[in-house]
């Protein structure tokens, strides 16, 4: 039914929760910011780093948010790849899609080089045709920019594309891009949350991706 399968990364293809929490905690502790729970941090996964900090510390001070982001990235360069694991369903699903002749892409607010590092660790870079990360777009999701760039790259129309993500932000991005969307409940967005957005399917795991 679809020729192009696009995926979010964090909480969709991979569990990087431990690394993300470590990096946020490093920055928050550096600035003696307390009373922010792990659950609050987890709910920001899918936002840009600046927007994540904006939500957590309730500040619109751009200089301060930029500094938080820079310090997060430095820490992430040290620890993120080592604390990121692909879900057990991810590699079999990607292989299944490639064997069926489909094209596969990743559209994420995570930096592309970090996603590439994880794929290299698992030796599955060849299973992904395109990665569009935060550095590749001017506007992050829910902007449709990343999905539309992928459509242009693959020379595909919207009816050929399925976008799969774990967050309401992904659902909004799919809606804004005019492509089919399938939600997966491996993140913090629930099945009930997804029902508020256009979708073809709400899944418990990537085992349910058909191709």
Write up what this structure looks like.
- One of its GO terms (cellular component) is cytosol.
- One of its GO terms (molecular function) is phosphoglycolate phosphatase activity.
- Keywords: Hydrolase.
- Helix 1 packs across helix 4 (62-79).
- The longest helix has 18 residues, at 62-79.
- By secondary structure, this protein is of the alpha/beta class.
- The protein has a six-stranded parallel beta sheet, sandwiched between helices.
- The radius of gyration is 17 Å and the shape is globular.
- It starts with a strand and ends in an 8-residue tail after the last strand.
- It folds into two domains: 4-15 and 85-208, Rossmann fold, CATH 3.40.50.1000; 17-82, Putative phosphatase, domain 2 (DNA polymerase, domain 1, Orthogonal Bundle).
- The chain has helices at 17-30, 38-42, 49-57, 62-79, 90-99, 112-121, 145-154, 168-177, 191-194, and strands spanning 4-7, 14-15, 85-86, 103-107, 130-132, 161-165, 180-184, 201-203.
- The mean pLDDT is 97.
Notable traits:
211 residues, alpha/beta, Rossmann fold, DNA polymerase, domain 1, 2 domains, two-stranded antiparallel sheet, 14% strand
Largest sheet: 6 strands, parallel
Mean pLDDT: 97
Tally the beta strands. Answer: 8
Instruction: Estimate what percentage of residues fall within beta strands.
Output: 5-15%
- Radius of gyration (CA) equals 17 Å
H/E topology pattern = EEHHHHEHEHEHEHEHE
Side-by-side strand order of the widest sheet: 5-4-1-6-7-8
CATH homologous superfamily designation of the largest domain: HAD superfamily/HAD-like
* Named CATH architecture of the largest domain: 3-Layer(aba) Sandwich
CATH class value of the largest domain: Alpha Beta
Distance between the termini: 7 Å
Number of helices: 9
């Amino acid at each position: 039914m679809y020729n192009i399968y696009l995926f979010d990364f964090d909480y969709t293809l991979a569990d990087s929760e431990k690394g993300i929490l470590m990096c946020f905690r490093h920055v928050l502790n550096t600035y003696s910011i307390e009373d922010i729970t792990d659950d609050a941090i987890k709910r920001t996964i899918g936002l840009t780093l600046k927007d994540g900090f904006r939500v957590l510390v309730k500040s619109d001070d751009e200089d301060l948010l930029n500094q938080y982001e820079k310090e997060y990235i430095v820490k992430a360069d040290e620890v993120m790849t080592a604390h990121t694991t692909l879900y057990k369903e991810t590699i079999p699903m990607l292989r299944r899609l490639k064997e069926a002749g489909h094209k596969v892409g990743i559209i994420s607010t995570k930096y592309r080089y970090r996603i590439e590092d994880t794929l290299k660790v698992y030796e599955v870079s060849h299973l992904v045709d395109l990665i569009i990360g935060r550095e590749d777009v001017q506007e992050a999701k829910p902007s449709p920019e990343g999905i539309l760039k992928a459509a242009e790259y693959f020379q595909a129309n919207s009816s050929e594309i399925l976008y799969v993500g774990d967050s309401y932000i992904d659902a909004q991005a799919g809606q804004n891009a005019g492509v089919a969307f399938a939600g997966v409940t491996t993140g913090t967005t629930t099945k009930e949350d997804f029902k508020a957005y256009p979708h073809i399917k709400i899944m418990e795991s990537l085992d349910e991706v058909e191709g």
